[in-house]
Amino acid sequence: MIAALLDRLRQGDRNALARLISLAAQGEGLAELQASLAANPRSARVVAFTGSGGVGKSTLIGKLIPLVRSQGHKVAVLACDPQSPLSGGALLGDRFRMGSSTDDGVFIRSLAAQSGHGALADHLDVMIRLFETVGFEVIFLETVGAGQGDVEVRRFSDVVVLMLQPETGDDVQWEKAGILECADIVVVHKADLPTTEQTAAQVRAALDLSPARHVPVLRVSTKANTGHAELWQTIHALPLRRQHATAASLLLESAIAWFKERYQAAESRHDAELVKLIEAWQRGETPTEIAAQSLLNTLTRAKP
Amino acid sequence: MDHPIRIVLAKVGLDGHDRGIKVVARALRDAGMHVIYAGLWQTPEAVVRTLADEDADWLGLSLLSGAHMTLVPRVLELMKQANLDNVGIMVGGIIPEADIAKLTAMGVAKIFGPGTSLDEIVGFLKTPREPKP
Ligand code: B12
Ligand SMILES: Nc1nc2c(ncn2[C@@H]2O[C@H](COP(=O)(O)OP(=O)(O)O)[C@@H](O)[C@H]2O)c(=O)[nH]1
Ligand SMILES: [Mg+2]
């Protein structure tokens, strides 16, 4: 069945593409799909948009679609919304915000992200490969929200755009949660609102604490229709991480990010074992090598 | 394989009554379905494209404007052209008695008028259907 669908896909059958994405979402025939798609080059630019619910991810993507199309690129969107852990149901409303289109060069798919599976739906890698097979050059991913699971977002994408908005009063929260670390670009969205400048300055200051990595901070307002061209230019200027990275370096990067995520969680709940370990190291009672191993053990055992 | 029912809910044309469709959307989600909410002011072409790309099992249209006898046949026609005849379609809203039989004959699986209980709609979707000829 999958072989037949893949044949139809390569002949440009849109319904076959839609069906294959469903199969991937349900985790059916994954091995066969992966095997037949593995040889394809990583030809697309995958851009992930993350940030709290309501920050305007869907609306912004909806604005970028025509911009990307005007440059002749085919664009696909995988938009994730949360699935209820109780009923298993989901209200997938991103597409409504993105605006409707009958352009063959645009493909929007709504996906339910299971709770506990991070900020994205399952098996996105297979879906990305399906789009690449039929020549989609730009793929936008919308996460269910910032915070947990951002490590995975980075793994699947070339560029991660973190979206924040002014006046939410949660500036302390994003600093603490360490979500800035996952971002390649930070967008202060809804720049039509007051206090945009303060928010942008706070983000800039937080980012400048780790000067090794240059992360642009852009102000965008979809309401006032400003900043989109500059955002797209900035996205486009960044290197394609998935193409250049080796599997080993991707794993290392993901592992480090995972490690930090765990560490921050343990730190914020004042994990007793962690505190003890740090103090012992600070007093010089345990050498770094041993402390590092205990740290790894503690964080691996701890619930996230 | 058992997967949650995927249903696209949309309003076609200039009809701005969206209370009913929002109530239905929430009820279906709470019943464990995956509801793709396409929202207001959709053209028949855009609805059918959404249906195709979302690989949905069902399309639910809500019409309270009186334009159902032009819009629903148009959607059905486009679905046929897009090879989506296997997707079930149901309609809700203000549909006069006389039009119900006509729409059913065209291929609409079921029509739900004002006052329909949400349980009835959920129950209908969860009842296994006979495959279309
Ligand atoms: C509230 C209302 C409004 C509100 C709408 C607010 C909103 N955002 O929805 C406002 C004030 C804006 C409004 C405006 C107008 N309205 Co008005 N409005 C109504 C009213 C009183 C109730 C509709 C409602 O919300 N019901 C509650 C919901 C929960 O019920 P429902 O939509 O019927 O949905 C249920 C079922 O139908 C079904 N269902 C509905 N959709 C779907 C979809 C699926 C997939 C399924 C399975 C089931 C399903 O399940 C739901 C639960 O039981 C009706 C009269 C009536 N009694 O129906 C008139 C009515 C619909 N309006 C009418 C008119 C004429 C207008 C205006 C043109 C008036 C004007 N001249 O300005 C404007 C047009 C606005 C526009 N842009 O389209 C007429 C339509 C006449 C017709 N079709 O021939 C009605 C019937 C009043 C009348 N008797 O004349 N209206
Ligand atoms: N003031 C302002 N509001 C916006 C802007 N962009 C989007 N919004 C609003 O923000 C809300 C959430 O947008 P949405 O795209 O659904 O956010 P998401 O949950 O991050 O996908 C909607 O009510 C939008 O109308 C903007 O540039 N300025
Ligand atoms: Mg959204």
What does this structure look like?
- The complex is a heterodimer of chains A (304) and B (133).
- Chain A is globular and about 65 Å long.
- Chain A is an alpha/beta fold.
- A seven-stranded parallel β-sheet of chain A has the order 4-2-5-1-6-7-8, with helices on both faces.
- In chain A, α2 (14-26) packs antiparallel against α6, α3 (30-37) crosses α6 and α7 (150-156) runs antiparallel to α12 (247-268).
- Chain A has two domains: 39-244, 3-Layer(aba) Sandwich (Rossmann fold); 248-301, no CATH class.
- Chain A is built from 14 helices and eight strands.
- In chain A, α9 (196-208) links the parallel β7 and β8 (217-220).
- Chain A has helices at residues 2-10, 14-26, 30-37, 57-70, 94-98, 124-133, 150-156, 171-177, 196-208, 228-237, 241-244, 247-268, 272-282, 288-301, and strands spanning 45-50, 75-82, 90-92, 106-113, 138-142, 159-164, 185-189, 217-220.
- The model of chain A has no long low-confidence stretch (mean pLDDT 88).
- Chain B is an alpha/beta fold.
- Chain B has a domain at 81-126.
- Helices cover 41% and strands 23% of the residues of chain B.
- Chain B has five helices and five strands, in the order βαβαβαβαβα.
- In chain B, strands 2-1-3-4-5 form a five-stranded parallel β-sheet, sandwiched between helices.
- In chain B, α1 packs across α5 and α2 (44-53) crosses α3 (68-81).
- The chains are: A alpha/beta (304), B alpha/beta (133).
- The complex binds cobalamin, guanosine-5'-diphosphate and magnesium ion (MG).
- Cobalamin is lined by residues 9, 15-21, 23-24, 60, 62, 64-66, 90, 92-94, 112-116, 121 of chain B.
Q: Could you report the average pLDDT of chain A, rounded to the nearest whole number? A: 88
> How many strands, which pairing sense, and closed or not: the largest β-sheet of chain A?
7 strands, parallel
The CATH superfamily name of the largest domain in chain A is P-loop containing nucleotide triphosphate hydrolases
| Main sheet: strands, sense, barrel of chain B | 5 strands, parallel
Write the H/E string of chain B, N to C: EHEHEHEHEH
Please tally the β strands of chain A and state the result.
8
Number of domains of chain A: 2
Shape of chain A: globular
Gyration radius of chain A, to the nearest Å? 21 Å
What would you call the quaternary organization? heterodimer
Q: Give start-end ranges of low-pLDDT stretches of chain B.
A: none
- Share of helix among residues of chain B? 40-55%
Range of strand content of chain B: 15-25%
Instruction: Give the termini distance of chain B in whole angstroms.
Output: 22 Å
Q: Which band does the percent of strand residues of chain A land in? A: 5-15%
Report the CATH architecture of the largest domain in chain A: 3-Layer(aba) Sandwich
- The computed structural class of chain B is alpha/beta
Tally of individual helices of chain B: 5
Q: Assign an overall shape of chain B.
A: globular
> In what order do the strands lie side by side in the largest sheet of chain A?
4-2-5-1-6-7-8
* Pair of chains with the largest interface and how many residues each contributes: A-B, 27 and 31 residues
